[in-house]
Write a structure and sequence with these properties.
alpha/beta, globular
């Protein structure tokens, strides 16, 4: 599963080429589609108003809700010191498929989380 954190959502909204291709072209394989956790979308929208509408209009992006079980784990992750803007991405990646990764402009935020973070460069 490919997860976009809030920094990747911001980069996508600002025209990042690789992310734009991923979000527009898509694939029939769900594990290769871009997934955006709800809290990451919220964090991006708080920084860049309109990001939710922009990303929501893209055909190859799927959204990950924050149900009770996820909220409980995200709460523990934040309590352990992970910034709330990254915590839902950590949860989504850790509970996703074995080859799950998070695309981010801040890979250092994922040090010690056990998550495979791929640096997309600074937006």
């Amino acid at each position: 599963m490919i997860v976009l954190d809030h920094t990747a959502v911001l980069a996508l909204c600002r025209g990042h080429r690789m992310l734009s291709g991923l979000a527009v072209i898509g694939t029939d394989e769900p594990g290769q589609r871009a997934h955006v956790p709800a809290l990451c979308l919220l964090a991006a929208s708080l920084e860049l108003p309109g990001a939710t509408a922009h990303v929501g209009a893209l055909p190859a992006v799927e959204f990950l809700s924050l149900d009770f079980a996820a909220a409980a784990v995200v709460e523990q992750t934040v309590s352990a010191g992970v910034d709330w803007r990254h915590a839902h991405a950590v949860y989504a990646t850790a509970t996703g498929e074995p080859e799950s990764l998070v695309l981010t402009a801040t890979p250092e935020a994922y040090i010690g989380t056990g998550v495979w973070a791929v640096d997309i460069g600074k937006p």
